[in-house]
Q: What sequence folds into this?
């Protein structure tokens, strides 16, 4: 059954290159270039924090990329300094629980679509990538990060939040378990050089254009690999976490909602928001 799904999905993935076009919504720009590579740019100023609306648009764009048989996807940001600040804290602070439920299930959808995609995926990380920003990039198959004073990592524990097992699994899939355990428990944010050393990223770049060009080089490596074999291989390698999270979706949602209801979690979030606001007002 699983194999049949993969084969059916992979059949849809025959190269069919479209001319340049641009779509998306106000919060993302989706462009497909003449080589059939889609570029999905998050554009929710100031920091691309992932609120429900942005997640919905990313989810829709991923459907679009799958439907249009793009040969690959590059995920990037319109900000010169931030790839994504991760989940929008305001979605979690004193939340409306109905909306929080939709928020979390949309995040789950985005993860399934990106982590489990048949098309080749790469992230051009042109700035900070904490938490959900790190998750999105780790869900891709290749990461190129622009050098500079940027950091990347899963810092949820610092906010008093336990990263979902889907965040953890994605990190285990990317860097060695020992490094991941240390990073997750200490809320470690890696500098670009540190991230390269543990292979949290694959390459560095001088600027966004260089990062996109290196992502394209990665995607073009597959020009000489039969797409069906590539796609099935990727799906088989990612099958474990995907199946686990398909079975665990409801429990994962319940856990998230129960954290949000916890007064200590709300207190920590409030303090964290104050710190961010103070930092921002000092600029
Ligand atoms: C991403 C980051 C390094 C960018 O730094 P920066 O460019 O100096 O930007 P600022 O910190 O000044 O943030 C700009 C604005 O975005 C807000 N913001 C930043 N991250 C946010 C987030 N994850 N959710 C909601 N709002 C956020 C700030 O409060 C600030 O708002 P204000 O202008 O109304 O005061 C920094 O914002 C950051 O560390 N954010 C928190 C990341 C995080 O811990 N995410 C975990 C979420 S679970």
A:
């Amino acid at each position: 059954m699983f194999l049949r799904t993969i084969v059916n999905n992979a059949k849809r993935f025959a190269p069919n290159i479209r001319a340049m076009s641009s779509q998306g919504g106000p919060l993302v720009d989706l462009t497909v270039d003449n080589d059939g590579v889609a570029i999905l740019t998050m554009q929710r100023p100031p920091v691309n924090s992932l609120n429900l609306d942005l997640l919905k648009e990313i989810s829709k764009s991923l459907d679009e990329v799958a439907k249009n048989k793009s040969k690959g996807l590059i995920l990037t940001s319109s900000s010169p300094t931030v790839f994504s600040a991760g989940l929008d804290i305001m979605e979690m602070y004193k939340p409306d629980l109905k909306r929080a439920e939709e928020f979390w299930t949309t995040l789950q959808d985005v993860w399934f679509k990106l982590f489990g995609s048949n098309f080749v995926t790469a992230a051009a990380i042109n700035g900070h990538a904490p938490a959900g920003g790190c998750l999105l990039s780790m869900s891709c198959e290749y990461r190129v990060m622009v050098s500079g004073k940027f950091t990347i990592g899963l810092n949820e524990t610092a906010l008093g939040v336990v990263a979902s097992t889907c965040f953890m699994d994605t990190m285990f899939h990317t860097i060695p378990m020992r490094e991941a355990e240390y990073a997750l428990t200490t809320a470690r944010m890696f500098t670009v050089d540190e991230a390269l050393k543990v292979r949290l990223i694959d390459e560095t770049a001088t600027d966004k254009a260089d990062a996109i060009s290196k992502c394209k080089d990665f995607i073009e490596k597959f020009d000489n690999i039969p797409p069906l074999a590539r796609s099935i291989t990727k799906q088989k390698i990612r099958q474990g976490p995907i199946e686990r999270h398909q079975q665990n979706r409801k429990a994962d949602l319940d856990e998230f909602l129960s954290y949000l209801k916890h007064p200590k979690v709300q207190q920590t979030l409030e303090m964290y928001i104050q710190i961010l606001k103070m930092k921002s007002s000092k600029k």
In short: Residues 227-261 form the longest helix (35 residues). The first strand starts at residue 21 and ends at 25. The radius of gyration is 18 Å.
